[in-house]
Amino acid sequence: MRIVLDTNILISDLITNGKPRAVLNAIMTKNPEIAISRKIIEEFVKITAEPRMRKYVTKEEVTQFLQDLVPASKLIAVRSRLGVVRDHKDNPILAAAYDGHASYLATGDEDLLALKKFRKIKIVTANDMLKILEA
């Protein structure tokens, strides 16, 4: 099983102790493969560098999070240019899941969740992903 975690799941994991963190902990325990793209990493770095994020997380915590995540993930070369999602900014996330041959895309994004499935990729919430991993 290969899973792509949307940027919003990664950021939620970093700053809160909720379902997204439980998903990443379950992934680390169960050992399905995490697929990640440069675009996801770049978006994560950009968002966590915003001044509003400083009240939740330090630069050092962001660095440590990436140092733990990236080596534990498979870096995907995204070549597809999709125009499937209403919000065009979400298409690179879906393309990472598609090009990465992911079984699941875990996200909190309503536009992606509305698709429910794209080809063979199931698009699920953090809560649904947690249930799948714990099954």
UniProtKB/TrEMBL annotation:
SMART domains associated with the record: PINc
PIN domain mapped to chain residues: 1-114
Coiled-coil ranges (or none): none
NCBIfam families xrefs: putative toxin-antitoxin system toxin component, PIN family
Protein name: Putative Nucleotide binding protein PINc
